[in-house]
Amino acid sequence: MGKSKIIWRSPSNIAIVKYWGKKGIQQGINPSLSFTLSNSFTETEISYQPKQSPKKIAARFYFEGEHKPDFEKRILTYFENIQNRLELFKEYELEIHSKNTFPHSAGIASSASAMSSLVLGLLSIEETIRKIPDTEFHQTASDLSRLASGSAARSVYGGFTLWGKLANIQNSSDDFAIPFSEKLHPVFKNLQDSILIVRSGKKAVSSSAGHKLMDKHPDKEFRIKEANKHCEELISILENGSFDRFTKICEREALGLHQLMKTSTPSFNLMEAETIAIIKKIREYRISTGQNLCFTLDAGPNIHLIYPEENKEEIRDFIQKELLVYCENKSWIDDKIGLGPQRIK
């Protein structure tokens, strides 16, 4: 057998209810609810061929054409941790090529898209050895993605996705995410997400470091209760179509996440002055026009401006005239709710 390859394209996601802090083996301390994006994705190509040495896991990793030894070590450690769940590591050596359509390590959940696309590729290779039932494929992908990066668990599905055990939601789990789009109100089916790039560089504090600081955070228990409450409320909102209530939870979660960072020990701040200025402009515009739009942030300074498709023309005009002046090189990403990962034939 010669060299073969698998290509998967998996999107990032933006959490409306945030996951911040970990428990057990790569589980969130609270449930989180997100929607998967469309244009912000990672494409991962995995070439595989029979191994030269049957004992050692063999893999090389390249990001946008450049060999990345440090990240390769992380990937190999991850493979060692999951080797008992996948037979492919006994059979094949791998060469992994990954590339993004959006800035890396800037608070747009690049690990979510990167790790989910990697895992989906691994499972497709695994299917050359053994059959994985269709009913198990994505659940397994979500579980294995979680072990690589928590938010990646949510990227294996399109639309809205819930990760974490929620008392009144059947099949919800701390180990994998479940899709939640069957009863979605029309106002949320075509959400737009304009990502305003305040800074495209690497964050001063990684998400992994931030998660660890929640272990001894004085507001940890309150945060867990609040996230559970917000997830339950948001599921109801997604069915009844109240954009006003969606906005309140979305923005409270965004600002609450950054407040947790500011009150950690040691404390840190990932917002920039431009971030605050954009938030002020959004609020002023919403009051003056009555338009349905809200903002959220991931663990970084960049703003996700979320609004229904029907308001697209007016809000794009607002972005161009009022907000791009605060963005790095006037850059932004035109995105929207997406259908989820796809295998590239």
Describe this structure in words.
By secondary structure, the protein is an alpha+beta fold. It has two domains: 4-182, Ribosomal Protein S5, domain 2; 188-336, 2-Layer Sandwich (Alpha-Beta Plaits), CATH 3.30.70.890. The protein contains nine helices and 14 strands. It has helices at 69-82, 88-91, 110-126, 134-148, 207-212, 220-240, 243-262, 273-289, 312-323, and strands spanning 4-17, 22-23, 27-28, 32-50, 59-63, 66-67, 92-100, 160-163, 177-179, 192-196, 294-297, 303-307, 332-336, 342-343. The strands form three sheets. Strands 1, 4, 5, 6, 7, 8, 9 and 14 form an eight-stranded mixed beta sheet that branches. Strands 11-12-10-13 form a four-stranded antiparallel beta sheet. A two-stranded antiparallel sheet has the order 2-3. Helix 6 (220-240) runs antiparallel to helix 7. The longest helix is centred in the middle third of the chain and has 21 residues, at 220-240. The relative contact order is 0.18. The mean pLDDT is 95.
Write the layout of secondary structure elements.
Elements: E1 4-17, E2 22-23, E3 27-28, E4 32-50, E5 59-63, E6 66-67, H1 69-82, H2 88-91, E7 92-100, H3 110-126, H4 134-148, E8 160-163, E9 177-179, E10 192-196, H5 207-212, H6 220-240, H7 243-262, H8 273-289, E11 294-297, E12 303-307, H9 312-323, E13 332-336, E14 342-343
Parallel strand pairs: 5-7
Antiparallel strand pairs: 1-4, 1-14, 2-3, 4-7, 4-8, 5-6, 8-9, 10-12, 10-13, 11-12
Helix pairs in contact: 3-4, 6-7
